[in-house]
Amino acid sequence: MDRQVGIGVIGMGWMGRVHSAAYRRLPEHFPDLGVSPRLLVAADVSEHRRAHAERVGFERTTDDWRAVIDDPAVEVVNVTLPNAMHREVATAALEAGKHVWVEKPVGLGLDDTAAVAEAARAAPGVTGVGFCYRFAPAIQHARDLIAQGAIGEVNHYRAVFLADYANRPDAAASWRFQRAAAGSGALGDLMAHVVDLTHNLVGPIARLSGRTATLIPQRPRQTGEGTHFSRVASDDLVDVENEDWAAAMIEFEGGRHGSLEASRVAVGPRTGLRVEILGSAGALSWSFERMNELRRFQLTDDGDEGYTAIQVGPAHPDYAAFQPGAGVPMGYDDLRVLEARNFLASVRDGEQREPGVEEMLATARVLSAIERSEISRAWEEAR
Hints:
alpha/beta; nine-stranded mixed beta sheet; six-stranded parallel beta sheet; 10 helices; 17 strands
């Protein structure tokens, strides 16, 4: 029989539910993983969310996150809380000898992320960070093509995450808009994914010139439970304390250049995460809104050139674990299952895999450089 791994989830909002569902689906998609997650305990201050956790299979619930870490049967702790709690909870779990899967951005900023990374280096457990988009089969295939030299030497790069969840003035001022609870805004929420994909596909960012802006300065106060997608009809407005938009001109190690952009107030794109990688012999383009398609261009000598839309299928990484043939689409929650598989394989082997806290630390250095550049109006080191 597979070895059971005791799971504790701290925070049962949207991300906590996504993580929990990913664990439940693992035996279906990866029956030969060799370990089986056992949903032991979920912690949340909300009675409603605790009741949901019990309905979906947790053996018990608690309103005290420390009780999860103190449980000797819990081997893995998932930290799916507002950013302000990441450092305290993740560090406590690591120091208790637990394996930790924590959502990005791992704290309020670079100092918090660095502290968690330091704790992880001194701890026996492995870490995972919620960079799910790097697991998309099309992205994995793109990375392989780039590494093989299929598009030649990369000489142009552009990545954006243009989201619309806060593009209306009545979008509720959830914790994500508060500096004390979230730290940064679009940087930690969206640009973190852009930077991680950039590091994963092309390589480290050395220096940059960045800018940030808050486009909607006030929003209605959030009442009751909700998410950053919630809308509220109210004249009770509060200040937005962090940025709606951020962008950077970047220079990679080795001297190549590119650009990054993120926004939570875009009109048009819905979840517009896109990357474009141009090389000396070809090009690749991917959009999360068309997650199962990779556009590829190849230089030829016969002049018959143009982008080809590749529909990912069983020949591409990890796709066959979900669908039997191309054209049957995978979705966001499937990426979370792949993320859970990667993390539990790391737990099984006792060997750190990417992405962990070290990859988040590299991303946090870039996010911090964008913030510093906004103040200095100068190029800043990002390493």
